Amino acid sequence: MAYLEGLLPLYTVQKGPYTVEAPGYEPVPGETIPRRHPKAKNGLLTRPAPEVSTNYDLLRRSADKYSNEPAVGSRKLLETHTELKKVTKLVDGQPKEVEKEWTFFELSDYSYLTYREYETLVLQVGAGLRKLGLSPHEKVHLFATTSANWLATSHACSSQSLTIVTAYDTLGESGVQHSLVQSAPSAIYVDPHLLRTIDKPLRAAPSVRYLIYNDSSNQPIPESELLSFISAHPNVRCISFSALQALGEAHPVPPTPPKPEDTYCIMYTSGSTGPPKGVPVTHAGFVAGVASVGAVVAETVSHRDSILAYLPLAHIFELIVENLVLFIGATLGYGSPRTMVDTSVRRVRQGAHHDGREAAVHRQRGERHRGQHAVLSEHGGRAHDQRVRPDRDVRKRRARQSAGVDAAVGGHDTGRRRGQARQSAGTELQDGPETSAGRDSDSGGTGAEGVLPQRGGDGQGYHGGRVVQDR
Fold first, then answer.
1. Alpha-carbon distance 404 to 395, whole Å?
2. Phi/psi at 385 (5° precision)
3. How many Å apart are CA 362 and CA 57, to the nearest integer?
4. Is 366 helix (H, G, I), strand (E, B) or coil?
5. How far apart are CA 150 and CA 438, in angstroms?
6. pLDDT tens digits for 91-122?
7. Is 113 helix (H, G, I), strand (E, B) or coil?
């Protein structure tokens, strides 16, 4: 019951009963009747809103409803710093101090796109894909870290009825090659530092005609390395994300909206028990997942919230959550597991906190200015946050726990027939993708996410884990 004590205790938002018996099931000896969330007692939820039947519908609705609100925010890499530090390693069974090079990141403040600006970006990138030569129902492989450009590429594909193929950026050559050969995409979106990983797999995937590299990556590579890669793959047209957007801006193409039964994505698992497995998800199945999660946390979220996004978008949960954030009109601020630890940041601007546990954030919204504090504590390697206002201090990620809910709303019944339910939700839970956030990197060092996503005014430092912030 520790969550009920301390400086900022959590409080129950929803009232029981938290599950109800699903209608239409006959009793079976030795089994209980499957149970559902009360909001789905009369039927599984299929849409977050009546007019949203596809991923593209979701974006279009939010762009119309929250046009001038901040949608996505990112930080630019200003400089990298390297230092030599001594670390203890076991050498021939004996502890020995050795020198290791650590990399530290210096990033700018967040800059934002409004919902209307983000929609414009998406439509331009979608038009650019069509101008390259892609046609509806072709596939675009996404092999990159979580970023605003990753999400924009996924929405751009939906705007032109293209199917995305997702793979963890932590996959090695064999896993990437398996996903490329099996799914046969026409294009691939990739971060520059992952070009080495796809060098050989790309040779085994003749279907790939276009490569889009993320020129806004915070893990850049020397230009000579990029040019060497391009020359080694003469049959693949390589273009930057910015150039793709400019191409679409110069050659606009009307959207080609997908149908609910069209395949939205083929999501590859992490391959921890064998080759990665591709899981097809329809647009209808995906928006049902958004409706499901949205219904569970509806009482604890609003368009005033912000979220620090850094978990892998190649995981169905993160992909659903980020689209849910856009659906409710809240704000996404992109970070990285490599840039969230304050102890490794360099040149922290004045006013930023350094202990990685407390942050004072001042958000300006229109003519209103509201103060907000986020307090973070670490337990078992995970950062948990609580918010000051006692009536809204339930985090999105904890909403189901605080409500005592362990039953699906839009995806499946708990108990009997779970396999059928997984199919109806369009996700594979038995061997689904695993989160890779927080895994150790050879680069060692990190820099802090020094400023929580903000719009206007001077923000204070922010450090720590993923935060749902009321602004």
1. 14
2. -125, 155
3. 33
4. coil
5. 19
6. 888 898 988 888 888 888 899 999 999 999 99
7. strand
Instruction: Select from 9, 127, 14, 20 the least CA-distant residue to 409.
Output: 20
In what side-by-side order are the strands of the sheet with 139-143?
Answer: 237-240, 210-213, 187-190, 139-143, 163-166, 263-268, 278-282
- The residue type of 226 is L
DSSP for 131-172, written as a single string: HHT--TT-EEEEES-S-HHHHHHHHHHHHTTPEEEE--TT--
Angle between helices 148-159 and 55-65 (to 10 degrees): 110
Two tokens, residue 373: 């504090």
Question: How big, in percent rounded to 5, are the helix, strand and coil portions of the chain?
Answer: 30, 25, 45
Neighbours of 352 (CB within 10 A): 18
> Please, which residues have CB within 8 angstroms of residue 342's CB and are 6 or more apart in sequence?
348, 353, 354, 355, 356, 448, 450, 461, 463, 464
- Tokens 């049902």: give the residue: 288
**CA distances to 51, 170, 220, 451 from 396, in Å:** 24, 26, 33, 20
CA distance 425 to 407: 13
Cα 232 → chain centroid: 32
The pair of structure tokens assigned to 183 is 């799914």
pLDDT in tens, 265-313: 999 998 888 899 999 999 999 999 999 999 999 998 999 999 999 999 9
Supply 146's token pair.
Answer: 């979580």
84: number of Cβ within 10 Å: 8
Cα distance between residue 121 and residue 149, in whole Å: 10
Spatial separation of the C-alpha atoms in residues 331 and 365, rounded to whole Å? 12
Amino acid at site 390 = P
Which structure tokens are listed for 166? 């997702």
Distance of CA 92 to the CA centre of its chain: 41
